[in-house]
Amino acid sequence: MTLPHAVAPLRIHGFESTAPGPRLIVLGGVHGNETCGTVGIERVLAELDSGALTLQRGTLTMVPVANPLARQRHRREGERNLNRLFQPSAVPADYEARITNLLCPLLDRHDVLLDLHSFQSAGDAFAMIGPRDNQGGLEPFARAHEEGQLALHLGTSRVVEGWLDIYAAGLAQRAGLPGGAPVDDAALAFGWGTNEYMRSQGGYGVTLECGQHRDPAAPEVAYRAILSALRTLGMLAAQEATVPVAATSPAASIATAPALLRLVSVTDRAHEEDQFVREWATFDAVAQGEPIGVREDGTMLHAERNGFIVFPNAEALPGTEWFYFAVESDRVL
Ligand SMILES: [Zn+2]
How far is the CA of 77 from the centre of ligand 1 (A)? Predict the structure, then answer.
């Protein structure tokens, strides 16, 4: 497909302190219709430019709109989802592959990624982290503690773990493979987003889902999360490191550590007539045995245990993810 000439180039803002320190990159607009990260980044940029904030050490890079084509179209995707297949390619097949080829070397020059998103259904902001430290084949990792500390301090009431495990399990399910069977590497690579790439290069990353796409509080969540990340990493001057959280901010109402949830399963919508029994929001609690949805043939889906509905999508295309299920996690961050 030929692109219109008017697509904006990727805009990258860099701040380098002479004092060595962490290298943080913040992305907004990986999905074009998710604008809160862009607004949060522009606000931090303005404060750095005016001198209201000073980078005390390390490197801060911010990309307000990671997918300019998707943003121009006010859609989630330009030609496809930028947050899949996120690996460099020798012969980029589409616009997002070309953007990925620009972003990967940029991510390579950093240790820490904060990726700012929003979501479709109603629900509160939450952070998503990767696996626990492990040497397995799916996603080996050694920086779970640092990643957990970052997620813990972003101001959300919930942190969710377990994305790639469940993605792989979903692939196996769809392929009719028995549980635990290895999934085709190419198919699995499709599940790679920005964070998975960052971890594969020795860094770590947290996705912050700042709220519903049009939630007026979401840009504030994004802005405060960037400042919190800078503070947690010790990158702001001392006086700025103690900026109080405004009493009106959503973060202020979170008195204690966020609840930690673990994704345990994904259920596909099999048929256009598959219906939820009610309109679910992300993190709606369900008790074991509670009805969740009805299949086209009348089969009722019940919660297999006490847990929470995550990313419900009543409009999911048959053969794609209908909802995820999460339980309380025993992990300690
Ligand atoms: Zn997104």
Answer: 10
